[in-house]
Amino acid sequence: MAKSKFEYVKQFETEDKLLPNCWIVVRIDGKGFHRFAETHNYIKPNDERALDLMSKSAETVMEEFKDIVISYGQSDEYSFVFRKATNAYNRRASKLATNVVSLFASSFVFNWPRYFGTTMMQYPPAFDSRTVLYPSDKNLRDYLSWRQADCHINNLYNTCFWKLIQEKNLTPAQSQERLKGTMSSDKNELLFKEFEINYNNLPALHRKGTILVRTPKTSMENGDLDLSLQLQHTGSARGQRSRSTLSNKRSSRPNIERLHVDIIGEQFWSDYPDILNP
Ligand code: ATP
Ligand code: ATP
Ligand code: MG
Ligand code: MG
Ligand code: MG
Ligand code: MG
After folding, report:
1. Ligand minimally distant from the alpha carbon of residue 36
2. Confidence check: pLDDT of 247 > 60
3. d(CA 98, ligand 2 centre) in Å
4. For ligand 1, is residue 257 a contact (CB within 6 Å)?
5. How far is the CA of 126 from the centre of ligand 4 (A)?
6. Do the beta carbons of residue 54 and residue 73 sit within 8 Å?
7. Ligand 1 pocket check for 104: Cβ under 6 Å
8. Which of 8, 19, 77, 221 could form a disulfide with 29 if both were Cys (CB 3.0 to 4.6 A apart)?
9. DSSP state string for 122-140
10. Helix, strand, or coil here: 99?
11. Contacts 24+ apart (CB under 8 A), 157-160
């Protein structure tokens, strides 16, 4: 097609191709979800319908973008890690960020009724998105550790904050005041002494967030069923993995599984060596 005299404006677009040989992380985060959660009566501190809907939306993204090797989500955010050698959208930062976030947002709205039933969505939610490069495996692991540590710190605080409101009838301001300047150990002690709660026994979904990984397609063939049944009792990441492989198989869902395990230590990475070597 002949070029029009207007075509020159294309030159104003700037190149945003990402460096080769680096992990690409796209992180999305809900815009103003403090208010969105309030408006939609999220259960405090952890609304599991909302967490499940976030993970469902992240799975939609992983089904579309096959180069995502692992995703991590908590609260109103999700991080998607593209393999170092990906050529998706020719590694263009804005293309990656916008395609991921818009698919995530539309999936969040599309699937809302499945998780929230008759609770109507009051207004269309928005999510922001950014693309970050991590040159080394250590940088990538530290990034994921940072997000999981954030999940833990917020969950410990929020659990205390809402217990004081819901069970000791403190106002939000009083609860905030009560927690001001406390260390982690103080909060653990508060939960134990005042509410007989051992923090470590709270649901792993709340404490660890959600890790999405891909299941090898062959994992349910032949003798693997026996293995997975054995592993169900171990409580390890592999045990969880096999359990959800089983349910994926039964419901013929795609090969993406949800884990709520520690990703800061070595165990997870030795259980899933393929993630860093895809
Ligand atoms: P910003 O637009 O800057 O991201 P924000 O209000 O979304 O502002 P965040 O730091 O992203 O602030 O925090 C998200 C907030 O959404 C949480 O503090 C919490 O109030 C709420 N929230 C998100 N998910 C849940 C959930 N599953 N259960 C309860 N509350 C939630
Ligand atoms: P890409 O992901 O690269 O944008 P694309 O298939 O969206 O691929 P575009 O160049 O954006 O390609 O073109 C959009 C296409 O969508 C049009 O070529 C047309 O086929 C279709 N389309 C969009 N809007 C309409 C419309 N209102 N009526 C009919 N067809 C439409
Ligand atoms: Mg924020
Ligand atoms: Mg937010
Ligand atoms: Mg957030
Ligand atoms: Mg198009």
Report:
1. 1
2. no
3. 17
4. no
5. 9
6. yes
7. no
8. 77
9. -S---EEEEEEEE-SHHHH
10. helix
11. 157/187, 158/44, 158/45, 158/46, 159/45, 159/187, 159/191, 159/197, 159/199, 159/202, 159/206, 160/187, 160/190, 160/191
* Domain spans in the chain, listed from the N-terminal domain onward: 18-135, 151-208, 209-275
Identify the nearest ligand to the CA of 157 by its number. Answer: 1
Task: Verify whether ligand 1 is closer than 6 Å to residue 151 (CB atom).
Answer: no
Ligand 1 pocket, residue 37 CB under 6 Å: yes
pLDDT in tens, 219-242: 454 444 444 444 444 445 554 544
Average pLDDT, the chain: 90
Strand partners, 212: 71, 258
161/181 Cα distance (integer angstroms): 13
DSSP one-letter code for 212: E
Least reliable range by pLDDT among 147-161, 183-197, 248-262: 248-262
Nearest CA to ligand 1 atom 20: 34
Q: Does the Cβ of 46 fall within 6 Å of ligand 1? A: yes
Rounded to 10 deg, the angle between the 137-168 and 172-179 helix axes is 130
CATH class for the domain made up of 18-135: alpha beta
Work out the angle at residue 78's Cα, subtended by the Cα atoms of residues 40 and 217, and round it to the nearest 5 degrees. 120
| Dist CA 47 CA 30 (whole Å) | 15
Whose CA is closest to atom 15 on ligand 1?
34
